[in-house]
Design brief:
- The chain is α+β, with helices and mostly antiparallel strands.
- It folds into two domains: about 90 residues, ACT domain (Alpha-Beta Plaits), CATH 3.30.70; about 220 residues, Rossmann fold, CATH 3.40.50.
- It has ten helices and 17 strands.
- The strands form three sheets. Strands 6, 7, 8, 9, 10, 11, 14, 15, 16 and 17 form a ten-stranded mixed sheet that branches.
- Helix 1 packs parallel to helix 3 and helix 3 crosses helix 4.
């Protein structure tokens, strides 16, 4: 039986960002539906003061609706009958409340909604979607761990790398306090993993959302390592990641830097991509945002291809460029590791 579904979108407070958010949200939903083998033509509808993404499809199962309810911008899922909307009693399967990635702010241009869109779209491109046992998310430029906290909300384990130890300490302190306040059973270990002759210090949280699961050893992890982004490959050589989501330095608050100091916007990803490929499982997906005023899309696409990634540059995923501020025109590239 065919049905019409309407997904109400969150109304972003920045009126200039809403148009971009609509394109991003549509890309995300198309990717998720495609991965569920649900062909659909998505239209944009305004009803009252709200915007909806509407499509006709076969009747969706409750599990499929719960999965789609994890969309970064969806606030309400309805069945549309004529001109009437029937709200469906569907809750997302988020493991944590939505405030986890919202509280600790990072001095940069990213935000949890945008990050969640990148995660959902990348997840839908992996070879195991929609039934991952427990995906591992990697952000090799994690800052204060927004990506990792969004991944934790999705029920994934996560590992982050950053050279800024102060930001990592803030993220560690924040997550520790959050888990304690929520009464979530967990452990926190300080580690020092050896890569070559170099010690890489880290903080590893292991947690479960119920005490029974914790006792059984059914835990997830969130790990924060202090070091250069090129260490991702050696760090994950034995336990690779399934999704890589990161923001390349935009060149406003943060410039690309490595062990030798400041790098060019071209040489920075070129130095890192072979290590990032090594850190990922076959069939894994990558989502990278960047400032197209400092790094051209074609240049980054060519670099990804040269390092063995399959870039997905179809019309849906290639029309996502949007202005964040005068000095930042943000774009997105999605790719798969064969």
């Amino acid at each position: 039986m065919q049905m019409v579904y309407s997904f109400q979108l969150w109304k972003h407070p920045n009126i200039h960002y809403r148009e971009a958010l609509l394109r991003l949200s549509r890309c995300e939903l198309i990717s998720m539906l495609g991965a569920l083998s649900i062909p659909a033509e998505i239209s944009v509808e305004s009803m009252g003061a709200s915007v909806f993404l509407t499509f006709e499809a076969r009747e969706l199962t409750l599990d499929e609706l719960r999965l789609l309810a994890m969309h970064s911008c969806v606030t309400l899922i309805c069945e549309k009958v004529g001109n009437l909307l029937k709200p469906l009693p569907v809750e997302s399967g988020d493991a944590f409340p939505e405030d986890l990635p919202e509280i600790l702010k990072y001095k940069g241009k990213t935000n949890p909604t945008f990050t969640r869109m990148m995660l959902n779209t990348a997840l839908s491109m992996t070879s195991f979607f929609p039934h991952p046992e427990q995906p591992v998310v990697l952000d090799p430029l994690c800052g204060k761990a927004t990506t990792l906290f969004c991944a934790a909300c999705m029920g994934a384990s996560a590992l982050g790398l950053d050279a800024d130890r102060r930001s990592l300490r803030e993220a560690e302190t924040y997550f520790s306090r959050y888990l304690k306040a929520a009464g979530i059973k967990h452990s926190l270990s300080s580690v020092n993993q050896t890569v070559g002759s170099q010690g890489v210090p880290g903080a590893v949280f292991r947690y479960a959302l119920s005490r029974d699961e914790y006792k059984k050893g059914n835990t997830r992890f969130l790990a924060l390592y202090a070091g250069d982004a090129a260490l991702a490959g050696p760090l994950l050589r034995k336990n690779r990641a399934d999704i890589l989501v990161t923001d390349l330095p935009y060149g406003v608050q943060h410039a690309p830097t490595g062990p030798g100091g400041t790098e060019s916007f071209h040489s920075f990803p070129d130095r890192l991509l072979s290590s990032w490929s090594e850190a990922l499982n076959p069939g894994a997906a990558l989502a990278v945002s960047f400032n197209s005023l400092t790094l051209k899309r074609k240049v980054l696409m060519d670099l990804l291809t040269a390092h063995g990634f399959l870039v997905l540059d179809d019309p849906i995923r290639s029309g996502l460029s949007h202005t964040v501020e005068q000095a930042v025109v943000r774009d997105l590239i999605f790719a798969v590791r064969p």
